[in-house]
Amino acid sequence: MFAVSMLAGCSSYRPTPAAFHEVLDQPYRLGAGDRVRVTVFEQDGLTNTYSVDQSGYLSFPLVGAIPARGHTAQQMEKEIADKLRQGYLRDPDVSVEIDRYRPIFVMGEVGAAGQYSYVPGLTVQKAIAIAGGFTPRANQESVDITRDINGKVMTGRVVTSDPLLPGDTVYVRERLF
Prior knowledge:
InterPro entries: Poly_export, Poly_export_N, Soluble_ligand-bd. This protein is an alpha+beta fold. The chain has helices at 2-10, 18-22, 73-85, 124-130, and strands at residues 35-40, 48-51, 57-60, 64-67, 94-100, 104-108, 114-116, 142-149, 152-159, 169-172.
């Protein structure tokens, strides 16, 4: 009976999808909640920080809403420059850099579950430390991460040394013994 109950507890476990770790080596893609710094050379009125809204668009002066979700900073530079060339500026020189990443979320067996700011280089272990560390009942070997990969939400079990991406949700499970 004990063995059956142990197997039942493990039945929900699925190996981490390959795409889960492949996305770590790809350029960062913007999403809702990100804030970017757009610099248009010699155009102080256009140089500012802009947020990607819930719909995934960046509202930019003169040209209006520009799709940003899923685009890299370099793609956004080209997109903004192309829009500005259409009757506004002759040869715009545009630079886009990430000003603030969308937050991560830490839940489960941690001291203070909640939403936290993402910083480049953040690992699961560092995120748990920011969230007040493990509770005495926490499984400290591995955690579940839910991540949006190319529009698909995937969950995978990883070790605490794995890196995080903006928008990830970390779930620290309770240990069995």
